[in-house]
Write a structure and sequence with these properties.
Elements: H1 2-15, E1 21-23, E2 26-33, E3 36-43, E4 47-55, E5 61-69, E6 89-92, E7 95-101, H2 107-121
Antiparallel strand pairs: 1-4, 2-3, 3-6, 4-5, 6-7
Length: 122
């Protein structure tokens, strides 16, 4: 499911190419808790402005990435919906087959996940 969501954001970026903006399809943030490294996963959350600075002496394009935050620039169309928006999940180093949901998630969030999983099984 994560790959499908990530691919939808990549397709969205192709559709807005030339606008000078980029929605990062997937972002990882690491944190060590109780001696285990957690890799938190955020999908389609962070916006960037891409500035073209010309070319270097080898002819390679020079660009600068400017972080804009979580809010979509007003002149762009809505990105695809993210069914996992608001769900804080992570993987644990050494366990690449499973994803874990942050324990402090609300019952509303857990219901949302159960609904997503039931749709995936049909």
């Amino acid at each position: 499911m994560i790959e499908e969501i990530k691919d939808a954001f990549k397709e969205y970026n192709r559709s807005i190419s030339g606008s000078g903006y980029y929605l990062k399809p997937i972002h990882y943030a690491s944190k060590s808790i109780e001696g285990k490294k957690r890799k938190y996963i955020y999908l389609g959350r962070y916006w960037w402005k891409v500035l073209y600075l010309g070319r270097d002496e080898r002819g390679k394009a020079k660009i600068r990435w400017v972080y804009l935050g979580k809010n979509r620039p007003s002149n762009l169309p809505e990105p695809p919906t993210n069914p996992l928006e608001g769900v804080l999940f992570y993987s644990i180093e050494g366990d690449s087959e499973n994803y874990y949901i942050e324990e402090k998630e609300s019952s509303e969030t857990l219901k949302k996940i159960a609904d997503i999983l039931s749709v995936q099984r049909k």
